[in-house]
Amino acid sequence: MSVHRSTLAEQETVYRWDREELTLHAWTANASEAQRWRRRGWNVQVRGTVGGVPRSWEVKGHLDPDALLPRKVNRDGHVIRRKTTLSGAAAIAAASKKGDSR
Question: Is the pTM of this model over 0.70?
Answer without folding.
Answer: no
